[in-house]
Amino acid sequence: MTIHSLFGYVLAGQIDRLAPALRRHYDLPPGREVLVEGVMDAWNRLPWARPFAPFMPVPGQAQRVRVRNRGVLDAAGQPCYEWMREFQTPAGLATSYTLTKPTPFTMPFRSVLDCFNQPQTVGLTLQVDIADEGQTLLMRSRGPQYLIAGRMLVPLPWPFIVDTVAVERAVPGSDDRVATVVVVSHALLGKLFGYHGILTVGAQHDVSAAGR
User: Fold this and answer.
1) Contact 204, 176 (CB under 8 A)
2) What's phi and psi for 197, nearest 5 deg?
3) Residues 6+ apart with CB under 8 A from 49
4) What is the distance between the alpha carbons of residues 57 and 55, in angstroms, rounded to a whole number?
5) What does pTM read for this prediction?
6) What CA–CA distance (Å, rounded) separates 111 from 108?
7) CATH numbers and ranges of domains, the chain
8) What is the mean pLDDT of each run of 10 residues along the chain (212 residues)?
């Protein structure tokens, strides 16, 4: 039986609408990998919190970024999407890890669960939408957010809820470049951290389909 990519499953028949660069980036079935590289500006109002939340960026301009995206299977055999990000900062590499997987129960909208850190400690439900006739992929927080304790998902109370918006747009005139903007905010504290820049999406290739 053919196992589709996570985003192919979430977007159902809509993933064919994505621009070539976005589809190459996200339509990764288990056993396929793509490297995404470019330059980004990053900012962070809470740099002291990085030891507790290493997915937060180190502030800096024109940082070289390398992202390895891989389609994997979880322990239940469900397709997932693995992110390994490296930001080249003045102090060296700042690495973060995310495993994006299906939401733990049916949502009334297309969604994934973004699980941060390794081992995973925080999970955010993200609504996934296609916009601009397939030129844009939009992910934004909606629904439950969790503290992850092993296989347990503990819902986070309101004071710990954050608002996440991630927008990826195909660069006009290119079939392998995307413009990325990520902003994480809090209802009371305002904008917390984020990054933006232009990334080039490499060709997909085969890797081991073993999951995490």
Assistant:
1) no
2) 170, -175
3) 56
4) 6
5) 0.92
6) 9
7) 6-197 (2.40.128)
8) 83 92 96 97 91 87 97 91 94 92 92 94 97 98 95 94 97 97 96 97 82 46
